[in-house]
Design goal:
Layout lengths: L2 H12 L4 H42 L2 E5 L11 E2 H8 L5 E15 L4 E9 L12 E4 L12 E5 H7 L6 E6 L5 E11 L4 H4 L2 E5 H8 L5 E2 L1 E6 L5 H11 L4 E5 H4 L1 H39 L1 H9 L4 H37 L6 H4 L10 H23 L7 H6 L2
Parallel strand pairs: 4-9, 6-8
Antiparallel strand pairs: 1-11, 1-12, 2-10, 3-4, 3-7, 3-11, 5-8, 7-8
Subcellular location: Cell membrane
Main location: membrane
Membrane topology: Multi-pass membrane protein
Length: about 400
């Protein structure tokens, strides 16, 4: 039988109703709150990051290849589709590609007029990430024989033009000669990002080819999705070195730098906040062990007098502190994961999409982060338990027995 563990267990029962009991409860609560807040904070932070990144990627992908142009116009010179696809197939880091073309237009209804950008895509090559943003109606159908006359409008554009699913509208394209097309609203999307919702209409790329008199082999550009977004910079450098001189490569982090900077700022603030939480929880644990040692000074003196070693007595308080830490971590996980599960399934906490780009607090489950948080908390708690126990070696039996 482990004597230190046995005495530690007996002390735990004997402390009921004492000042030490109150302090230990505070230590357990502080550890539990720290763990719960860390789990919730990281789950929400990763939720924000994934939600916003997925919305951005649904429009711009990780990398965009287009014709080099000095005037920064939304309408660019076409590039060859076949040759570019063959070049991209040589890179194993590329997961999928999506051709696109853009053309400015003016939408006219009976009551309103609005300038927009028609972005043509080709789902016959790969599924569009835009499907995840659809909130009403259905996605564009792409017939094999002719260009689709269906378009997707954002919620903001639909409200401004007073259009709904099934309505049609006239699109005026300013070119020589001017062209007019009638499109049907097949669905309505919403990302919460004004950079997209106030500007873009999604349609069939073949409509833009017909307007520009392009053959099927030409596109406005190519959007590239990588297998690992974390490898964006090295893959972009590698691709750039192998592109033709008349093509340019744009990274999504440069095109929407303000959004990615905002995410980085969120990450930095959360880390600082979590460090403060860990410091407070560790300080409370150290204070708790100190108080337990002071209240048990007489007992420590008696144990030393009958032959107990410093390590045995230190182990006794170590097991006591370890028990408190494990209880705090358990209750913290119960509270943190429980809150995340409730928010994930029932969406109890709403958000204003105008300010947060989404209508609810997002939750992202990352088992690795949860395990790392628990391990880090456990190690910090062990350190907090071990430090005060070294005070035991300085306690003299004669003085300790007389201590009151």
């Amino acid at each position: 039988m482990n004597v230190s563990r046995y005495i530690s267990h007996k002390i735990d029962g004997a402390d009921a109703g004492s000042f030490t009991s109150t302090v230990t409860k505070i230590a357990i609560v502080s550890i539990a709150l720290g763990v719960a807040v860390m789990i919730v904070s990281f789950a929400i932070l990763e939720g924000f990051r994934n939600e916003i990144q997925s919305k951005i990627f649904s429009f711009g992908s990780h990398l965009t290849i287009s014709k080099y142009d000095n005037n920064n116009s939304l309408e660019v010179e076409p590039i060859g589709n076949v040759q570019l696809l063959n070049d991209l197939k040589r890179f194993p880091q590329v997961q999928s590609t999506q051709p696109f073309a853009r053309k400015t237009a003016i939408i006219k209804t009976r009551e309103e007029v609005l300038g927009v950008v028609l972005k043509g895509i080709d789902e016959r090559q790969s599924p569009s990430l835009m499907r995840q943003n659809l909130v009403e109606g259905k996605f564009i159908s792409f017939p094999d024989t002719a260009a689709s006359d269906q378009v997707l409008l954002s919620r903001k554009v639909a409200d401004k033009l007073r259009l709904k699913v099934g309505d049609d509208a006239l699109f005026y394209f300013i070119q020589n000669p001017p062209r007019v097309r009638r499109f049907v609203v097949s669905g309505i999307y919403q990302t919460g990002l004004d950079e997209f919702d106030e500007v873009y209409i999604i349609g069939d790329i073949r409509q833009i080819r017909e307007l520009n008199a392009w053959p099927d082999t030409l596109v406005g550009g190519m959007e590239v999705v990588l297998k690992d977004f974390k490898q964006l910079d090295p893959v972009a450098d590698d691709l750039y070195e192998n592109l033709r001189y008349d093509l340019k490569l744009d990274k999504i982090t440069d095109e929407y730098a303000q959004l990615f900077d905002w995410l980085q700022l969120l990450n930095r603030n959360v880390v600082i906040f979590l460090l403060l939480i860990v410091f407070v929880a560790t300080f409370n644990m150290v204070a708790t062990i100190f108080i337990m040692i002071l209240e048990r000074t007489n007992m420590i003196g008696v144990l030393k007098a009958i032959g107990a070693t410093d390590n045995q007595i230190r182990s006794m308080f170590f097991f006591r502190g370890l028990n408190l830490a494990l209880r705090g971590i358990f209750y913290g996980n119960l509270a943190g994961l429980g809150f995340c599960a409730i928010q994930y399934f029932f969406h109890l906490i709403p958000l204003d999409p105008e300010n947060y780009y989404m209508d609810r607090v997002p939750i992202h489950w990352d088992p690795l982060i949860i395990v790392l948080l628990n391990v880090a908390t456990f190690l910090m708690s062990l350190l907090a338990v071990l430090l005060p126990t070294y005070l035991i070696s300085r306690i003299k039996p004669v003085v300790a027995i007389k201590f009151d």
